[in-house]
Amino acid sequence: MGVLLIMVVKGNAVDKLDYNGIDCARIPEHIAIIMDGNGRWARKRHRPRPYGHRAGMEALRRIIEVCADLGVRILTVYAFSTENWKRPSEEVNFLMNLLVEYVNRELGALQDKNVRIRVLGMVEQLEPRIQQEIKRATRVTAENTGLVLNIALNYGGRAEIIEAARRAATLVSQGELTVDGIDEGTFSRLLFTEGLPDPDLLIRTAGEMRVSNFLLWQIAYTELWVTEVLWPDFSKDDLIRAIIDYQKRERRFGAIDVGKGR
Ligand code: IPE
Ligand code: IPE
Ligand code: MG
């Protein structure tokens, strides 16, 4: 019996070792990722850009799994921006089809992992068949209580803020909200991220030092972490590195001496 107990304890220790250096009590509750670098990854291999996007999808699958295992509560990934329509139509179509393929292929596995899917963005501007897939994925996983996976699709931070402003104005004109009643709390509830806390950590792969219109309102006090690693190469170890760096930071939110936050 005693021996068995030691083995169990050892077993746990081995699990912990996997996440070497992470303080499991201070895992960021909400991680956002700008999944950039698919095109460069393909170019390095002398392959067309879609090859990189496909590899990027595999990276997403891996990272969702690690986030679910680590107990991250919310993962928000930038899949397609309102500016990405500027790309050649073949690439846009490929990305949209890849999304449908991803949902078809992964829905069962996400369901098994208790992942709840949400889509953030101007969904109504997407093709009907894409909208149908989104509806299906969100409906099927609606009751899941594990990781919340937000897929930002046809998402732009400025468009989101404008949409929220329009909704606030509509509510005021209907007498359901007063002008003075528009504060940070009510405004947040009109954004696509309604009901979710702001990201604690924003990761950008492929090295660009910019936010590219992602979650402009929500990242006011988010910790930023940029890596040169291209998204298709982004691994569990890279995510762990990001979390460890995050855990070393002191979040002050404009105040002083708040000690170590999450
Ligand atoms: C990110 O990779 C994926 C999307 C924007 C959809 P990119 O396609 O932007 O890759 P790079 O930046 O050209 O390497
Ligand atoms: C941001 O990457 C959008 C997504 C990852 C979906 P981009 O490749 O579009 O960003 P820029 O153009 O380099 O700013
Ligand atoms: Mg890019």
Describe this structure as you would to a colleague.
The protein is an alpha/beta fold and 262 residues long. The chain has a domain of 177 residues: Undecaprenyl pyrophosphate synthetase, CATH 3.40.1180.10. It contains eight helices and six strands. A six-stranded parallel sheet has the order 3-4-2-1-5-6, with helices on both faces. Helix 5 links the parallel strand 3 and strand 4. Helix 2 crosses helix 3. The two termini are 39 Å apart. The N terminus is likely disordered.
Structural class: alpha/beta
Corresponding CATH architecture of the domain at 28-155 and 197-245: 3-Layer(aba) Sandwich
How large, in whole angstroms, is the Cα Rg? 20 Å
Distance between the termini: 39 Å
Number of helices: 8
Report the average pLDDT across residues: 92
CATH classification class of the domain at 28-155 and 197-245: Alpha Beta
CATH topology of the domain at 28-155 and 197-245: Undecaprenyl pyrophosphate synthetase
Strand order of the largest sheet: 3-4-2-1-5-6
Number of strands: 6
Q: Bound compounds, please?
A: 3-methylbut-3-enyl trihydrogen diphosphate, magnesium ion
Largest sheet: 6 strands, parallel
Strand percentage lies at 5-15%
Report low-confidence residues grouped into runs of 5 or more: 1-17
What coarse outline follows from CA principal-axis ratios? Answer: globular
N-to-C order of helices and strands: HEHHEHEHEHHEEH
Helicity level, as a percent range? 40-55%
CATH superfamily of the domain at 28-155 and 197-245: Decaprenyl diphosphate synthase-like
